[in-house]
Amino acid sequence: MQPHSLKLGPDSDLIICIKEFSFLNNLYGYVSGVVGNLSKACIQCPGDQKVNIFEGNLEIVSLNGHFNKGVVHLHLSFADERCNVIGGHLEEGSIVKKGTDILLVSFENKTINISNQNSIKKQARVKAYILKSCPWSKRSLRLLDSLSIPHEVVLIENDKDFQKVNSLSNHETFPQIFLDDKFFGGYDELSKQAQFDYLNSFK
């Protein structure tokens, strides 16, 4: 993984700057953090094709989503001067007021796109092998729960259990996430997939 810091000056277009940076540097990744403000925000709300425009002193609350060599999918939330928080799909025309710092993280594109055609009916496609005291195991389960992804949890309690799952994954760290009985990865891979498609391809 490689971090990148973007410092945007006044009158910069938020989405165009990320598009251009990822395209010129041939990058794939996601937005990790943002601090800044806007004079204008253009967003599309769920189920509404119209672009909504807001103007004023708008403080950026969050910016989430991914970029892929000039193609982006980003969600913006911001607060107006009365601290009302508004959010939606980021569109061109969202203009920086004083300045905005954005942290991007890029990585090699190994995301797996899987259709639901091979789903096992009435059975969770995701199986998570975990250790009881492992913080990364707990984070993985919280992530799966927060996105309503059906999953089966298998607690590794002894060497026999470990040898069994290790023979399937050839992997020694935990958690170990399997999709349709094929080893997918650990928490990092799960988190990256969540940034890409909210784990919808795991349902």
Described by the principal axes of the CA atoms, the overall outline is: elongated
CATH superfamily of the largest domain: Hypothetical protein, similar to alpha- acetolactate decarboxylase, domain 2
Along the chain, the helix and strand elements come as EHEEEEEEHEHEEH
Output the radius of gyration: 20 Å
Q: What's the tally of helices?
A: 4
What count of domains describes the coordinates?
2
Overall CATH class of the largest domain: Alpha Beta
Helical content stands at 10-25%
Question: How can the largest sheet be summarized?
Answer: 6 strands, antiparallel
- Class from helix and strand fractions: alpha+beta
Strand proportion? 35-45%
What is the correct CATH architecture of the largest domain?
2-Layer Sandwich
The N- and C-terminal alpha carbons lie at a distance of: 27 Å
Mean pLDDT: 89
How many strand segments?
Answer: 10
**Unreliable parts:** none
Oligomer: single chain
What is CATH's topology name of the largest domain? 60s Ribosomal Protein L30, Chain: A
Features:
203 residues, alpha+beta, 60s Ribosomal Protein L30, Chain: A, Glutaredoxin, 2 domains, six-stranded antiparallel sheet, four-stranded mixed sheet, elongated, Thioredoxin-like_sf, PPC_dom
